[in-house]
Each structure stands twice: as structure tokens, then as C-alpha cells.
## 1
Amino acid sequence: MDLKDAANQLGVHYQTAYQWVREGKLRAEKIGASYNVDEEDLRQLIQQRSKPAPPPPKVKVRDWHQQKEKLLGHLLRGEELQARSQVQRLADGNVSVVEICEQLLSPALAEIGERWAEGSLTIAEEHRASAIVERSLANLMLSPAGRPKGVVVVATPPGDEHSLPATMATAALRNNRWITHHLGTQVPADDLVKISKDTGADLVVLTVTNPQALQAAKSLEKRLEEEGIPYLTGGMGSRLGDLLAAIEAKSWTNSSSNALSEEPHAQRRDERSAHGTENSLRN
Ligand code: B12
């Protein structure tokens, strides 16, 4: 077949097919002034082009500590564009949302919390940093193609204003093909139950960061149990990887209580006791 017909079958312009012949991508025999393309060669090239491109190679982060220090610097100086492009570069390099959250964003935020607690960072600076992290997370809210695994509702109990952990959980779930309804903070129990039923949620994920909201979380759990809606609760120090593992294994089924909800702050409460919490972020 001549090159013009081959180009048509490939769905490209004649010049492109000619370029491919010159580059050796498409084999063709020169006969006089024209080119002859073997049908088998053409079939193979068409097949090769129809395969999805392989995912970009995963960027290997050698030094997360250095990444965290760099991000922390941007957050402390209020350099939003630099912070967001640092996060974006990792996402573009196929680094998982869980890694980005747990190796980079959470450690940077933890340090911001430490500095606030010891009085070297103002509330305004903390708010500015949190807002940048929140907007960096927006870029990670991707839902890859493929059959959804199920429906999840993510919420934070009343009395807890720490919205970022639930946003991170949402990003991780969406990236793992769970349809995720992210409700943010301060959702009344009745409304949480209603939306869970309306959306046909398989599971409610609760995130508790403020120890003072633990009781509210317990009441929500009790209510969900009464309604027969499964839930998983996590908090400071709990791992997104554990959330994904539990949800993949569907190991929440009939869980009337779960270990994660017992002491969500246990791990870090000890670590941070030296800094105290008498300072207030809010006044
Ligand atoms: C930002 C921030 C705030 C912001 C929140 C803004 C926002 N939009 O979220 C504001 C200003 C509102 C705030 C307020 C307060 N804060 Co504050 N805050 C922080 C800070 C600096 C970051 C929080 C954060 O997002 N952390 C990063 C998260 C994402 O990391 P993580 O906890 O490990 O989260 C993981 C898990 O939650 C997991 N996950 C999420 N969902 C699920 C679900 C399941 C099932 C599983 C398995 C896992 C999982 O995913 C996350 C990522 O890996 C922390 C410092 C810190 N160490 O975190 C203090 C911190 C949490 N705050 C603290 C305090 C004391 C308060 C206040 C009580 C201060 C006050 N006196 O007013 C108030 C409480 C207000 C309220 N009613 O809630 C203390 C809590 C200490 C304690 N444990 O007792 C901390 C630790 C600061 C400190 N060092 O003292 N805070």
C-alpha cells in the first residue's frame, strides 16, 4: 500500500507518516518517487499506537526531610505558588497522595503546630500556612479512570475545626477510585445520616483531631451504629494507608467499635505534652 493510504489508516497527515518513515518508526520501501508500506508493519504500528501510554516513571524522593524543610520554608514565608508547585511536581512525578500527605504535608503542619505551641509562630502565620496547604490539596483531588470501588462520606465531628486531615483522607480515597463526599466540618448528626443514606454510602469516615471533639465523635459513632451505617474513625497519628487497607478489605463491616476511635490522639498527645496547649490558636 502507498504511504498516503497508510497515513489515512493511521489517522495522521501524509507529512507525519513521511516523517515517521524518515525516523524509522514506520518501515517503507522506496519505489521510484513513492513509498510502499507493508500491511503487517502498518497493523503493528496501529496496534502499538492504540495502547495507552505507560504512566510517567515514579519520581523517587531521596530525602523527604529536605522536601519537608523546603515546604516548611515556603509555608512560613507565605510563598503559595512555590509551595503549590513543589507539591504539584511530586504529584506529576507519580508520587502517591498518601506519601505526599504523610511524608510532606503532615510533618510540615506538625512543625507549624510545634512552633505555634512554643510561641514562635503567630496565629496569622499558622492560618496562612494552613490555607496554602488546603489549596495545595485541591490539586491532588483526582479521580482516576476506572470502575468506582464504592461510596464514602468523609466528615469531621462538631467541635473540631481541623479540616485538613479529612481533606487529605478525601484526596487519598478519590485517588483510589472511591466516590467520596467530603462534608468538611460541623455537620449535624441528622444531616450526616441523611446524606449517607441519600448517597448510598458504603462507609462514613470520621476524622478527629481536636481532643475536645472526642465526645462528639463518640455520639456520631453511636448514631451511625443505630442507623446501621458502618464507619471508621481516625485522628492525629492514624495513617491514611491504614484507612485504605481497611476499606479495601472491607474490614469495617458491622464494626460497632473500632480501635482507631478509642484514642485517636494517644500517640501524639504524649509526644507533644512538653509544649502544652495553654496557648490558644484562636484568641
Ligand atoms: C492547622 C491547625 C489548626 C487550624 C485548623 C485549620 C484547618 N483548616 O484545618 C485551627 C486554627 C482551626 C486550629 C485550631 C485549634 N487547634 Co490546631 N492545629 C493545627 C495544626 C498546626 C495542623 C493540623 C493538621 O492539619 N495536621 C496535619 C494532619 C493532617 O496530620 P495527622 O493529624 O497525622 O492526620 C492524618 C490522619 O488524620 C489521617 N486520617 C484522616 N482521616 C482518617 C480516617 C481514618 C479512619 C484513618 C485511619 C486515618 C485518617 O490522615 C491524616 C494525614 O496523614 C496542628 C499541628 C499538628 N501536629 O497537626 C495543630 C493542633 C492539632 N491543634 C491543637 C490545638 C490545641 C488546637 C486548639 C484547641 C487551639 C485552641 N486552644 O484554640 C484549636 C481547636 C479548635 C477546634 N474547635 O477544633 C493541638 C492539639 C494538641 C492535642 N492533641 O491536644 C495541635 C497538635 C497543635 C499543638 N502542637 O499543640 N488548629
Note: The longest strand covers residues 150-155.
## 2
Amino acid sequence: MRHLIWLGCSLLVACTSRPYAESGWELHVALETQAKLGGCVVADLDPRHAGNEIAVTASTGHVYCVRRVGTGWATEIICHQEGEMIQVAAGDLNPEHPGDELICVGAARGGEDAGGKGAAHYAWRTAQGWQSKEIAVQDSLIHGVAVGDFDRNREGLEVMIAGYERKATVLARVGDDWVEAGSVSIGSRAKGVAAGLAGAVIVCDDGALVEVRQEGVEYAMLRLARYPAPLARVHGDPRGVLFCANDGTLRAWQAGEGTELYRSSDRLRGAVRAELDGSSRGEEIATAGYTGEFTVLSTGEGTHPVVPRVVAWSEGKLHHLTAGTLPGLGPCLVGCGYSGRLLVVRNHEKDSQP
Ligand SMILES: [Ca+2]
Ligand SMILES: [Ca+2]
């Protein structure tokens, strides 16, 4: 009898620990590894294949390219660095090279918590294969990265990195080399960077929300707000900012004011605004975190989101969330984390409509 109870419990655990998606949504495990997957981005990284791919960073120092092939997924190693790679950003950093290029940041050697130097790497795909080069080293961990037009005195896009050195640094590509275009002290350890507002927005582990903007040839820092819990991830655009925190809050910052949108029972590691659900008007807001839940809030036509819906769940803490369009699937949410899984979640309600 005891064995039967044990078996029953084991089956129950096995059944309940399988990833699931709510009605109208589907969840794909696009990659399964034994490593912690720190960050992910959707971009056109591989010019050989039409449409976007996913880049995902691992605690082992690997950066993977994952792409949709038929009804399955294919994975290639973009590069393998000596240190844990935490976050990744992409954009057309070299217009002479087709598609998007990649920047990944993390530790120069060893793990995130080893306390060593930080590094940033540039990676791209050529006819000869994937290439990568180190473009910055700092005395401490680099935790956040974004691509955007951060230097108006230069053509094209630049990179902003920030981390435990308590500063934001703009890097620009000049031919085959990278130069530091500017730097500003932000006074706090940075966890996430995004292009937004008048330049960039940075979330910090002392709860500070910081804006960095270019003034002439210099960069200035403006502390917008300070929250009680450490902030973790940030999404920005010229109108406003979405950001999440260790106390489970997801907030919006708009017109000089912060609004709480959602509160999870555990740390949040995702702040995304994208068109995800064709059946509802307006863009959606999405978040994910340590509960393993993917939560979507419809913005509708008003400014206040409606009731949050948990649309998918996977065992293990989620460490990052992004969104983008993938071949054959359309708009998707892409998340990764401590389970070593790269998860793709999408709404398929409109697929069945005539
Ligand atoms: Ca491609
Ligand atoms: Ca390019």
C-alpha cells in the first residue's frame, strides 16, 4: 500500500511538473540544457535562414542560436566564452553585414557570483561561420546590455553596457574596432538596460530607476525613482518604461509617474511590451519570474491593463523574458532560466479563425 501511495505521489509530481499552456496558447521547449540560461533575444542573426532566430546565453559561457525548423528546433553554438554570459542584445550594428549582430555580457571568467571582472562580446555570422570578439572588459560583472541610438553624433546604432561597476558605458563600432563613446556614473549596481525615454533606462539592485541621456558629447544621469526592492529587468520606448523587481512587482513609468501593474508572489525577471494576442486590441504587457509563470496583461485601448492572465507555466525559475516574431509561429514570448530550458509561448487563437 505504501508503495502504491509513493507511486501515486511520484506520478502526481511527474504530471504536475510538465510545462503547460492555457487554452488558446501553446508552449514549446525550444532548447533543453543542463546550464542556467541567463538571457535571450529574438533577432535576424543567421542570414542563411529567412526570418528571426533566438540567441540565448548560458552559465557555462555558451551562447546558442536556436531557430525554428518545420515543427521542431535546431541549435548551433554561436560562441563559448570563459565566463558566464548573463544577458544579450541584438541589432543592426554593422549595416554592411546582413541581418542583426549580437552583444552578450557577463563575467570575464567563471560564474556570475565569483566576483571577478566583467566582459562584453560582439558576435555575428559570416560565410565562414560564427565569429565573436571581446569588445569591453570592466573590473566587475557586466549585467545589462542594450542596442540603440545612444550617440546622436554618430551614424547608426551603438551599445550600452552597465553592471556592478556602477556606470553606464556607450560602445561604438568603428570599422573592425570598438571604441568607448562615453560613460557616466550611475551610483548603483545595474541589473538591466534598455533603450527608452530620451536615451536609455537602467534598473539597479538598490531599487533605483535611472535615465541616461546624451547632452552634447557628454552623458548625464537622472535618477527617476527609488523603489523599496531591487529592480531586475526593464523594457523601454520613447513614451515610457516597464520594469520589474525582486518583490514581484511589475511597474510602468510614464509621464514622470510610476504605476504598479501586477504583483507576483515571487521575484520577477521579465518586462515586455509587444503584440502577442491578435484577438485583443492593443499591445500586451508580459512578465515572468521565479514562479515559472508567463503572465500576460492586455493593455486594451485604455491606459490601464486588464486582469493579468497566467498563459503558460514551466517548472523552474525564469531569469529573462523577451518577445519577437518567429518563422511559422508569428509573435512569441521567449523565456529562459534556471531549468536550462528555452521556452517559446504564443497565442494561437487566431490560427483557428476562418
Ligand atoms: Ca535569419
Ligand atoms: Ca547588420
Note: Confidence is low (pLDDT under 50) at residues 6-15.
